[in-house]
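Mods, move this if it's the wrong board.
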Amino acid sequence: MSVTKIDPFDTWSAPAAEDLSSHQFYMVKVTSEGKLALAGADERSFALQDAPKEGEYGTIAVPGPIVKAPVGAPVNAGELLTSNAEGRPVKAEAGDAIIGTALTSADAAGVYVTFTSNPGGAKA
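Not the wrong board. Structure tokens:
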């Protein structure tokens, strides 16, 4: 009998903003600098898959595929994203449908940002 494992998560690596060596499998956030730090209450977070020390790269599990697109306005890593009227990702505001979480920053419209793709339209 054949068995297929279906894994709905991709992974992303970024440097640790602090010592996370004793926090494997804890929830971490992506800071505005694109680094990993322990998440606080009610913060968008991801499961840390390893145990990096400060400055070392750590790996997080992210839902959905990791994609790139040119932004419609500047965004920071860690921000929730929605789509603007031109179909470009922008920072989500309360009540917006969420399309993903920025993993990198973009300082101007048209700059490509890397983000988790979360189709489904959960509201911010």
